[in-house]
């Protein structure tokens, strides 16, 4: 179980950031701050705080179900010959599909804009930097532990350690 905790922490931090963004949008709308102009967003496409909160609660439900499935697999290891981290892998795949799903569901225009902004952040030394690029890059650099979790997720799944949690947990301790 200890090997899969970075996956759950990484995904939870993304969900928590989405919840905080929905609170932020609520506060900015309540005090009539023109955040659409500040962040250079499309004024014809507005995502409300309720929509953001609804999506974050749906993602949190998926996260909790996957976490509980992983806890059950680890705690009832006498039922499984080799406990695997399929719930962890499923959570990561589901979140990846939701983020990069090419169909018109889950606010596709917003997801495309996020991918564009992330691309501009990565090529920022060679391109124009706007406030929204700077703001998101500042938030990403502040998430040092979360970025380390992402790297450990990559190594967990690429090395095959997720296939046999019991033996790898003994080696970890």
Helix content: over 70%
Beta-strand percentage? under 5%
Principal-axis shape: elongated
Tell me the count of domains.
1
Low-confidence spans: none
Oligomeric category: single chain
Number of helical segments with 4 or more residues: 8
Structural class: mainly alpha
Mean pLDDT: 85
Tell me what you see in this structure.
The relative contact order is 0.16. Helix content is about 70%, strand content about 0%. The radius of gyration is 19 Å and the shape is elongated. It contains eight helices and no strands. The chain has one domain. The longest helix is centred in the middle third of the chain and has 27 residues, at about 50-75. The termini are close together. The protein is an all-alpha fold. It has helices spanning about 5-30, 35-40, 50-75, 85-100, 110-120, 130-140, 145-160, 165-170. The model has no long low-confidence stretch (mean pLDDT about 85).
Short description:
The protein has 173 residues and is mostly helical.
For this entry, give a set of tags.
0% strand; mainly alpha; single chain; 173 residues
Topology record:
Layout: H1 5-30, H2 35-38, H3 49-75, H4 86-100, H5 108-122, H6 131-142, H7 144-159, H8 165-172
Helix pairs in contact: 1-3, 1-7, 3-4, 5-6
């Amino acid at each position: 179980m200890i090997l899969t905790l970075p996956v759950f922490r990484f995904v939870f931090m993304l969900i928590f950031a989405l919840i905080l963004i929905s609170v932020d949008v609520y506060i900015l709308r309540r005090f009539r701050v023109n955040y659409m102009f500040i962040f250079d967003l499309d004024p014809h496409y507005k995502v409300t705080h309720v929509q953001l909160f609804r999506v974050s609660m749906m993602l949190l439900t998926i996260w909790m179900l996957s976490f509980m499935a992983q806890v059950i697999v680890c705690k009832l290891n006498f039922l499984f010959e080799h406990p695997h981290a399929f719930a962890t892998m499923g959570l990561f795949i589901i979140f990846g599909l939701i983020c990069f799903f090419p169909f018109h569901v889950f606010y596709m225009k917003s997801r495309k804009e996020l991918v564009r902004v992330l691309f501009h952040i990565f090529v920022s030394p060679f391109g124009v930097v706007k406030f929204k690029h700077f703001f998101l890059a500042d938030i990403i650099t502040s998430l040092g532990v979360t970025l380390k979790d992402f790297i450990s997720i990559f190594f967990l799944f690429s090395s095959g350690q997720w296939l046999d949690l019991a033996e790898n947990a003994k080696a970890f301790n």
